[in-house]
Hints:
By secondary structure, this protein is mainly α. The chain has helices spanning 2-13, 19-30, 36-75, 81-85, 90-109, 113-128, 130-133, 135-138, 142-157, 173-192, 196-210, 215-229, 235-246, 255-263, 269-301, 305-334, 356-371, 376-389. The radius of gyration is 21 Å and the shape is globular.
Amino acid sequence: MHLALYSKRMVNEKKYLSHDELLELYALCQILPGPTSTQTLTSMGYRFGGAKLAFLTLLVWITPAALFMTVLAFIYIQLSDSHLQSLKYIEPLAVSFVIVAAIKMVRSVAKDSLSVILISISFLVTGILRHPLGEYVKTPWMFPILILFGSFLSYLVKKGYRKHKKIKVKAPWKFLFLFFFIFIIAAILGKVLDLRIIKLFENNYRFGSLIFGGGTVLLPLMYEQFVSFKGYISSQAFLTGLGLIQATPGPVFSFATFTSGLSMRTYGPGAQMLGHLVGTVGIFLPGILMIFFVYPIWDQIKKHPVVRRSLDGAIASSAGLVAAAAYLLFLPVGLRWQQDNNFHLTNLLEKNYINQENILAIALVVPMIFYSKIPTPIWVIIALFLGFIL
């Protein structure tokens, strides 16, 4: 969804950068741990204004989502099923945005046979093979593996880019040192001190440090840690928040704002507010420290012939991942399953397994988004209005 918005606003409307440049940043962030969409946008800020603009971009990006989830955490239990039902067209709309983004990016990137092959491989592995191979393909390591595979194959096949000036890389080591320093200190304090607020920071910082592939990878880890293992929140609260985050603007990683705040609710409203803050900082901080360390190096070395010959493959593989995301997001919205989050054909309902209403909505909205210039917020308002009256 966010990559679709970046493509529409930053590339098509504002002309700040090209599709290839956007996918270049996306590919870089895919091989780093942390919230990919947030890191991609922060990288744009770094590209145009250095560390200060990157940090400001980060704050502007995560603040609305954090505030939304903080407020929703206090009032979620008051929401009835009829209120939640009014959000039913948000998911088909989100899928439509991703489908449009995938179509535009694949068309832009598929310039030669190698690009087509790499796009197809990424789509096949992370999309189609996700079902028969299960956990072997679902691993978050598959995202950086495909990016690196595409880069290596492109390096072997591509020619040219042989002349270059000698490059002197100046790495901002302080950010990498800070990344590991906080990781170690948080782990020690979380083990030694029996304070839930410290443990929440350590859990979220660890999640943000080890997760590849975006927010969907975060959700099962959070459920295991906060619901199954420690029992900080109930499964009902977790699933309610998960439904709300799907209709909330901003990164999925802001779900940590919701879960961390609720984990502190038994200590009073003040402690709950502190939990929201700690969860937000903990989940986003490691990924941003990695961007502050890696992006300046990337900006210095990307013109090297080895990197240039590899970059086209990374971009093509990234386009395939976007296409796979569109396919995977379509499945739970367009079809009905006996068990949620289990998208094997054997898990389909025996009768009425096609969600005709959602498929019709996607079929109508995709061409309208593709060819019209209606702003994204207007589409969201229309979806909310239709969900309320129908």
